[in-house]
Request: fold
Amino acid sequence: MKQQLPHDPDPQGQAPGLKDILRRLPSVIGEAVKGKAADIADSSKLREDRVPLDWNEASARTVAAEIEDLLRRGPAARALLEGSWSEQDLALAEEIALATSRAGSSNITRTEAYLACYQAYPELQWAFLAHMVSRNAGWNMTDLRGRLADLLDENDKRSFYRFLERSNALIFQDAYPQLMLYMKSRELGSSQFHLLPFFHVSRFMRPFWERFWIDRGSALLTVGLIINEQNYIEKRVMRHPYYQKYAADKASFHLNSLAGLNQIVFPLWEEAADGDEESGPPQASEGGDRAGGRRVRRLAGRVVSDFGSLADRIALGKGLYAMLMGLRAVKSGAQRFADRVPHSGSRADYWPELFTANKEEALTSPVQGSELLEGETLPLDARLYSPKLLDAWGDTPYEPITREDWLRDHSALDGISAPQPPYLCDISREHRGGILKAALAHDVAAGGSGAGNADGGLGGGGDDGGGEL
Reply:
């Protein structure tokens, strides 16, 4: 562990100002560089044991050819796909529509629904990826009422929340009926994918599901869903005039790169030691440990380079999938976390050593960066406030949604290729660095940084090589 230096309190009893924060930056940057090197080393270990994704290139070419044929045939192909539906078809479709409405009421219910799909049918690997990414959406939403509350005005908070919520809700509305159709097909013993047009699913997806029904090729279906869902929100959210004006184009929107909102993390739950009880979420104590050791010590994940780019979002999704399902340690650790920790939207779900959903345990000081510079954990009564999602925002009603098919040209085929895990997949220290940068920005906004240790680390990266958060 890194040796902690004593406090250097201001002799006047006041918090040092911006100059003190700037004085600390070299040591903060130095620790970030060390942390990056440690994350690279840990990433190499994660990549050692791989799980085959069973990508079938022949199936991929077949699906691509069928989509090209749909494009050549134009609107007439859409009419043929819809056909006529029987009373039994319509009854099944209405049942799925009702289930989608009920499960789509909030980020919490959507996230739970994705996990239930994956647990029932593990070949639906996209559902597990969606579950983990949806957890991140919830954490980003509560950040707006927690650690970023003082960095944004109320209008910006609401605009960014609506941007995140709208994306999360629309993807669920489009994808969940598809997952349900597969599960109903399994129950009935026959394909029900002729009902996809009932839910206004793009004709792009029909060949993927029909191929999946034949060979259960999880990787190809997952890539298809990633391409579909990102195209689905491209016009409805990313290029929508409201979000262009009030979220995506605003200078303050770029706070995401400062505050860590551009990081998608997969908490990895470790195996319990002999005699240690594994059930239940990690419980915070004085030292931030539970039963002799924290259960989440590693975070796998990716940094989002350009969320505004459709191609980059598709590439990001494929990389996240290859990491989550193709690296054994990431897959098993994330599954254990998902099984043991219910999603609340609070970052205390995975990081109780630094965050709390209880305001009475939260840090009341106007400064945060100094506290984080001093060590890897925060005292029980001085943790960063990260509320539960329903406490922060509640449920958000659906808004009207355009129904046109996004498939227009052959560019949709560009992303149909085998997913590969990224080089850097352990971002434990980089994620904590993002939290620290947000805290330092908070300190600047508060007018000072408080007394603290200029040489404290970002957490992890010590000589013991433990790599704890």
Observations:
- Residues 154-188 form the longest helix (35 residues).
